[in-house]
Amino acid sequence: MYLASLRIAVDGASNFLRRAASNTLKIPDIICGDFDSVSKDTLEMYGKQGSKIIVTPDQDETDFTKAVLVCLDAEKEKQVNYDVILVVNTVGGRPDHVLSNFHTLHRFVGQCTPLVLCDIGCSASWVIQPGICHKISRQRTASWCCLVPLTGESVVNTTGLKWNLNNQILKFGQLISTSNAFDDTSSLVTVKCDSPLLWSMDGSNIFN
Question: Could you give the CA distance from residue 171 to residue 35 in angstroms, rounded to a whole number?
């Protein structure tokens, strides 16, 4: 069971929450975005229920990036430290949205609490920072994982994978590690790289 200390809905996602409303689904603490896709009725309903409405009109940033900034401002205001910023239902659909979400992950590397993109029942993705030995517990039901460089090339070392990397260079146009898998004999995966690396994995049971 995961309890969020802050819940943010971004623009049109508020419409989805309204349609999916139930006794167990709490209202968002904050609704933010440029509000080009949320309905007026949805904003009014949540505003009356206590959600804070924050307009973020800057068209040079995506709603996702602006939502992270809003989240970090709230963290400072409340003087708390989040363990993780979990972003739900962010992968799939339009490729430009997927790429912009990965761009936002890269933008905040080392600047804030880890960001994890999660499509419930599908995948989980985050950025592995360079120079750190990143440890990932093996998900025994996970069927795949991948490692993709985000800037140019990355020299990568891994343990605990079916196809490990030993000082190998990952680079678009040469080699990227997609459709990799966990080693059945290991309970832990380690990854070390020298430039930011996108890690994605099967998330079908990651929150069970």
Answer: 38
